[in-house]
Amino acid sequence: MEKKMSPGKNKHPDDSEKFKKKSVKKSEPDEKENVKEAQDPLPENDSPKDGEPEGTDLMQTLKAEIEELKSSRLRQMAEFDNFKKRVSKEKAEVYGYAAACVIETLLPALDNLERALGAASEESELKKGLEMVLAQINDIFGKLGVTEIDCKDQIFDPELHNAAARKEDENYGDNTICEVLQKGYKYNDKVIRHAMVIVANP
Question: Which domain covers residue 124, as residue numbers?
């Protein structure tokens, strides 16, 4: 009985060697291509993106932005300076108004002290005490900027004086103040009380 030979045993020994050589030759080009791809550098993305300035345009854009920032900063500084001046002015006005109101409420008490001084007997201790108090008040008023309105022998000024009466008097000129009934006062340049006067020869 004949023995069947396996397919593998029918191949010639040289055929396997040839097959190995062919497979080696086929793999060599693939390895060379892989090495070439590894050696080639990746392409650099130097091209600018859409809408992105390059070169001179970029410098001009940056300069324009810097100038805009400078202008904005100068505007803010000017606005802040104006704000400080406005606040300072408003603060001074509020302080001046408050001070004028306080001084105006004190004037009747000052008037009464002056009347008491006029009624006090000469060389009395009361008169000396009243003189000291009035001198102290006038000193304080002077430091605060409060001044008495000058009236005697002055031409009548409706901005400073309030005419309580008028009379004819040859000893005075026309429209001249001849008598002061109540003193007037100013706080800095603001009249806080008009002087009440009698005007001669209106």
Answer: 62-144
